[in-house]
Specification:
754 residues, alpha/beta, Hypothetical protein af1432, Rossmann fold, 4 domains, 7-stranded parallel sheet, 30 helices, 26 strands, 42% helix
Length: 754
Amino acid sequence: MEVLAKKSIVIDGQTHTKTLSQHTLDVLEAFGALFGDAQNPTLFAAKWLRFFRIERAEEEAFYKCAQIAAILHDIGKSNAQFQRAVTKGGDQTLRHEFIGGWLLSLEPIRNLLEGVEAADFQIIRASVMGHHLKLGSGILEKADGDPHITLIPEGIYDVLNLLTPQFLAPLPENPPIPRHINLDEISGAFDDIESDLEKCFADERRMQLLRAARTALILADAAGSGLARESDRTVFIPPGEWIKKAFDDENFLSGGQIEEKVIFPRRAQIEKGSEEKFAFSDFQLEAANLSDRALLLASCGAGKTLAAWKWGAGVASRRDIRRFIFLYPTRATATEGFRDYVAWAPETDGALLHGTSAYELQDMFENPDSRSGKDFLTNDRLFAVGFWQKRIFSATVDQFLGFMGHDYRSSCLLPLLAESAIVFDEVHSFDARLFSALLGFLEKFDVPALCMTASLAPARLGQLREAGLEIFPENPENFPDLREKASAPRYKIQKSSRENALEEVKSAWERGEKILWVVNTVKRCQDAAKELADLLPEARIICYHSRFRLMDRQRVHKELISAFREDGPMIAVTTQVCEMSLDLSAGLLVSEYAPLTSLIQRMGRCNRYLEIAGGGQILLYPPEKNLPYDAEDMKNVEPFLNAVDQKTVSQLTLQELLEELSPSTREMKKLLPFLQKDGFANAVGDGIRDIDGHTVSAILEADVGKYHRMRKEGRPTDGLIIPAPVKGSEKAGGLPPHLHVTKNEYSGRLGLIC
């Protein structure tokens, strides 16, 4: 009987099948192309082992465990239920990788594997059972259906015989495999397996070896499956050659290439916009000499992003890296980073990577922009593997650190992290869970990393220092240009009332100024926009927050940026989204009280370029309610406001107050699943951010028909998606499980009415 690994696919009228043995050989080919073997490791393998901090004495164990797991990873597919599912359809009582783990636990097979020198049976089995990242406790509790499963011993023997050339002497006889099993009768074996998974990985060295080996299996399986499928379609390069091209030992990213492909064209763009010759500041030039682990602290508008690219060029000049990855906290900031920097790179090198990046890339640039003709999209059928040949990234932090929550797509991007230099921007904005992920990443993995922000609470600064980051600049007085910008009188701050702020906005608009009004909730943002429209019917007022359809948010974002660059007065009313994703400068900033770091970020959008002599005007007033913030978030806001009220202050003063008034207690670290010391690997879908239980992804009720038409036509539907409150949203038939329908009223000008 022919045992299949996957469903057949039809290409150009021909049906293509993949047997279990063929698929296993594809995965082994992919593993060899990525890692080589213990005697002839690839250069990428050296980067991988260094990334996971695997010691030289452990390298043979890595290869033995990962290669054996690659051979055995799908052995559990040799059962009648799975074969029926891939040929005729139907359900499976238990996932194939769990059946595989049980097979490996059979005494004859376990004895064979434990007899392989330098191999670790527990790592092999945990890798096999966890390679789809569905391995959680209570394995049999998830079994659903007929407990009687028919095995196909012939297919199992075919897989076991693949072990013999390299790891075992020829099997003297096939180990006894039962043809029929009853899950109820073997539940004790699964209890023993779970006990091992819980107890056998307390040693950190063993745990790190499991992480490296299991993820290597995931990569080989993803590449072996995707690339082998593509070779039957349009790709005429064998999978091994495709992988070798992605990890070409001669194709490193040099500092000169970063300068030439990104920094120089960005510099030319700045000069064109300002009509002045651009000169790097001393601190930007010095950033190139920073160590491989650093924290860059500089005020808003100081040029941190260019300094970070200079740092990347410096790292690439002294260390072999193949990628440069710039990670942002939001999709909007990642898109702006791509537009301003990465898009200057050749299309074969540059990539924008976040949840809706394919949609964002459509018509991003207008002719005759030199970036407009480039195609930065990857082959969707290759999933995350399609990014392996890219070299310069602008992405959200979730895309690359999501592996710490056992996200499969992010796990497939780990090869890029392993041989890159990485920038984490706006680290002040990371919530507690995301900041824990950052700290865990810095502790467990060896890779050049630069963190950046304009302001940071002392407790977090201390944690990053303890994580080995060099603080730059440690002595700002050594950089007169930076010191001058930080100490310049920039803001005239005044406590106010909302009523007084309305009058000041009216006066500022009549004087022809640009005004930014920031509130803490979407509803108050919409209310303020409507009230201002009634007060100033001739004014250009833009309401901007998170609850727009993506297609509308994209439009409003562009309109807002353009309005601040054009002549004439305008008013932008926004929520917290302005704190990171908007590079603009207002003459008057009005804001509700907010946590200290948020207030300082908002102030960075006023007189950003020191274009207003004497300082921009800032009015701060108390909100109706503190939500979405709690009392702890707002604890030191009043003393801060009292210290700056009726004063003209600098960004340096704000940072000093932040250091003085921020709580000294540290946030409790949140342990991410990837870093837990057990053999489980279960992607539960929580991600690496604190869970927002109040918002769901939705489409408008009026857009349901359009959504289905677009899907049928194969067009991207991201533009219709909107973050909507749980209240007023519901599940609907025919939509993906994660997507809801919202019945709330919607306005193209105001967004979803809350």
